[in-house]
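New to this. Help decode the following:
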Amino acid sequence: MQGCSRANGLSRSVFKRVWVKLAKDIAEVCRMSVTEQWLRGSKIAVSAMLVLAASSAGAQQIFFDDFESGGISHTENGVKWTSPAGTSVFNGFGKSGSRSLRFTFAAGDDSMAEQRFSLGKIYPELFIEWSVYYPSGLEGNLGPKFVHAGSREGNNNKFLRLWKGDPSDGVNGYGRFSVKLGASTDVGGLVSGDEQIFGEYGTNGGGMGPGGPTGSGVEAGRNRNFLTNEFRGRWLNIKVHAKAATAANNDGVLEIWRDGALLFSVKNLPLYPTGGVGNGFDYGYILGWANSGFAQTSYAYIDDVRISTSSSSVKTPMPPIGVSAE
């Protein structure tokens, strides 16, 4: 059997005891005859399944799409894509396959490309992950360097929105929202041309911003080193943790990671509507209006979109090479 030489160098993560047990099984089998190896094979298979089960126990996934179907018709657990605007599946370029979802932002002020999704029901807490690619301009076929024009005051370029509202407004409650949470970007980075990311929230249809509906509330988080030349021209992994506040409590959460590094974390948002009824999210969108616009038609690409109701703090470990019952 292969993998014997790696039996004593396995992961020391939170799954340490399971890994160590599996390692001992492999090491023992390496000293056995072929017949004995076959008899012990089922035991090793069970150990391997324990590793995989433990790795997935921390997260409850409700939706995943890698766009390899060639469209956006995928539905899972009531979650589905809706109302595409300036988006299309792009062939020949992807993070994990050969396709991704491309966002096309036309040149000029107030450009817009967004992909909406319906969650099918109200979720008080969500973990949303996706990979995003912002071109450096050197690729040749993916578009110019992705950078907002930054020519207008109040630059507000949507990154993510989640909300719950009154659907009678004709836009799934986006206008008559009870709660709304998300993040935006602009060219207020530490260096000219770099972009920062900042959280925004609002309640009761009363506006939305970094300081809440009044503009003077709890700040929803900010990082001024979000998109620099270092992060253009390669796939970035984005993870967002969003949680509505419990009724009348200031415990709403917004956390954003890029490639595993925490950009900001705020856990005291007053994100609850009057009366605290139906508090959570049932709709959302990725990217969206770019109020600062672009000097030339520009593109962004996303892939491997995953929505979960809980999260594991560790990555899924892979079983040792060569573990089988053969």
Q: What stands out?
A: Confidence is low (pLDDT under 50) at residues 1-22, 42-57, 313-326. The chain has two domains: 4-56, 61-308. The radius of gyration is 23 Å.
